Fold this protein.
Amino acid sequence: MPISSVKLGVNIDHVATLREVRGTAYPVPLAAALKCVDAGAHSITVHLREDRRHIQDDDVFALKEGLSVPLNLEMGCVPEIVEIALNVRPAEVCLVPERREELTTEGGLDVIGRRPEVFKTVEQLTAAGISVSLFVEPDPEQLACCADSGAAYVELHTGRFCDTSGERAATLLRQLIKGAEQAHTSGLKVNAGHGIHLGNVADVLRLPHLDTLNIGHSIISRAVLVGMEAAVREMLQALSGVTGEER
């Protein structure tokens, strides 16, 4: 069986959550990120939220300076955060929807409904040499709008699929597969993320044309029990042991 070429991006937001909940100087996100890289992670993701509930501005700058792998900055389409991204210049920015009261990102970005501001932000970031990804549902109309935006990537929201089972899950997986096909055909690179863990990653890998899976909460949770490097290696092993459709 051929080896999967899908890359692993590790989201380390919840390392910062542990720090912020007690107001301490530790754990340090960069230290955790370096352990992920040592274990083989291909990139590191953080979400700089407007409310700064976990990752802080200084973390983003430190990660950009200290990492040997690409930094993927998740962010809302907000002028203040866009300005920070333009100063940091991460390898990639993923534009996501954001509500202050949510526990985590709850769905895909409404690119159609927010077309003027999204397109402007994509243009600004791209002009600065930053690859832009749009975090979206596998909706044909949204994906068509993404293709017009100038973004290089879409990141398909896998959370709804990962949080259900049975026939509903099968339906959602088919939608994700079709979405990946549409995105690829329209010239977009395809990432995926949200809710992925060792128990469902084999099914997520059935999506065609995947470049990177961005996984955070499940890896950080597993790291509490087995350590960061072991948790990352477990996920990398899961990625290398299963292949999906044509990549």
Notes: Confidence is low (pLDDT under 50) at residues 242-247. The longest helix spans residues 166-185. The two ends are 14 Å apart (CA to CA).
